[in-house]
Amino acid sequence: VQLQASGGGLVQAGGSLRLSCAASGRTFNRNGMGWFRQAPGKEREFVAAISSNGGTTLYADSVKGRFTISRDNAKNTVYLQMDSLKPEDTAIYYCAGRQSAFASIYSTYYTYWGQGTQVTVSS
To answer: pLDDT tens-digit profile of 70-98?
Structure first.
């Protein structure tokens, strides 16, 4: 499975962005998917995850109520809708895929990683 993230950019605080992650391969509808981010000088952290059928979603406390993860298995794509953005959301955002159908908050449970897309939120 290869993953290609897109949709990052520069936005003012309070604004919105939608990230997309397009996956290759025939098994996408059996893969749990997640978004992680890494800010300069910080470790990579969990943002959101979704199970293979979309029935389970998980969020970091820092983004709960502002971000929404979703997926379209017919398009082999997972999305991250980010609203009410804050400067502290500035980071490189990575999408990741599991061999398992379940969602997980742990980066070590993910096998496939995209190249990352930069999100910058100005104050």
So the answer is: 999 999 999 999 999 999 999 999 999 99
